[in-house]
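Q: Okay, next protein. This is MFS transporter from Congregibacter brevis. I've checked the sequence twice, so it should be correct. Can you predict the 3D structure?
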Amino acid sequence: MTTEKLSFREKLGYGLGDTASNFFFQVFNLFLMYYYTDVFGLPPAAVGAMFLVTKVIDAVSDPIMGLIADRTNSRWGKYRPYLLWGAVPYGVCGYLMFAGSPDMSPTAKLVYAYVTYTLMMLAYTIINVPYSALMGVISPSSIERTKVAGYRFICAFAAGWMIATFVGPLKELLGGGDEATGFRITMIIFAVLSVILFWTTFATTKERVVPHRVKTDVRLDIKTLLSNGPWAILFASAIVTLMNIAVRNGSLLYYFKYYVGDDGTPLLLIFDKTAVFLSLGLISMIGGILLTRYLAQHFEKRILMIALTLLNALSMAAFFYIPPDQYWLMVTVNCIGSFLIGPTPALVWSMYADCADYGEWKSGRRITALVFSTVQFAQKMGLAVGAGLLGIVLGSFGFVANEIQSETSMMGIRLMFSILPAALAILGAAFIFFYRIDQQTIVEMEEALAQRHEDSAVA
């Protein structure tokens, strides 16, 4: 089977869409919990509860968006139109999350947080479900999709590096010492950039996989999804993996502020300890992503996912034992762990696309957006549960914002930054053990689907 190789322009254009996503996604991972508790003035337990409660909406909106996108037919394709029309609402809602005033009453602040967070998650769903599904139809070749996924996550973590490196200094510089104003102005910048980048993705990509024509039936689509064993494995793994990310990233600012003692004093030029730690870690992760293509060509994705995840878990657990004055040891261990985990996002997203192929291969129905929407819901659920767990645990350990922490609350911060995310990473690897789409299966699927699509086009 011969497959058109995707151009550098298209692979980069697709990747820039995840740069746009991560301008907000990484802010939420790294700064949102801190913003809500230490800047906006909400209790950590209330924030944790909000993250969990609002997932009820995502449980409905994500699969519905997947069903809608799979049924969309336009001159631009099924998924690309949403990049064009969803970009501006996405940018506006992301900015509004940081536009509230800390002087509002406690009740008003909580209501404002619920409303703006919910609106942002809906905007995220409307644009990111089609964006993710686009990778499943950008090429019929698994290896080409893996290459695209590599570009995607280089761009994603480049955005993460920008957020980790510059949000802290920018909020101080633009806010003149007022963190609320600094966050607000900083997010205007990233909101505008996000809109421009999503439009760039729309303009530079193309949908190439045209599914075999079948009768529209929501019940059959859902039945096809639920009978897809590899999808179910990745769904479960996504929940615990993103719980791991949410717990660790959400606790990072607390870890450095209260345990390491980062008071914002510049360590390198204008960058403090936290920014340097994050920046070097993300650069190391990008280095790991550059190995994705090589690794995917020489090893089974499943084996790579398990091995790299377990090694990263070991690096996270090590932080429980590193003394607070060993900053550069922390940086070194984090860089090693980040490098090891670098290839896994691209690998797992290409595995999601393989699951869409697998479902069509077995059932004759292609439900690309539904597959990606439910996995995205699993990820958002994992992030919400992880962030909710972080808020609840901090509250139960007696955390008080902007105060000297007790031994008990300090222990809670340390556990949330090391042992708990490591345990969740191990659980995620355990799920991947049961994933059963190997390279031989991929070759069989691609050949069978290519013939089926050719026959459908002739008919």
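A: Here is a summary of the prediction. The CA atoms of residues 38 and 401 lie 6 Å apart. The chain has a mean pLDDT of 88.
Q: Noted. On to the next one.
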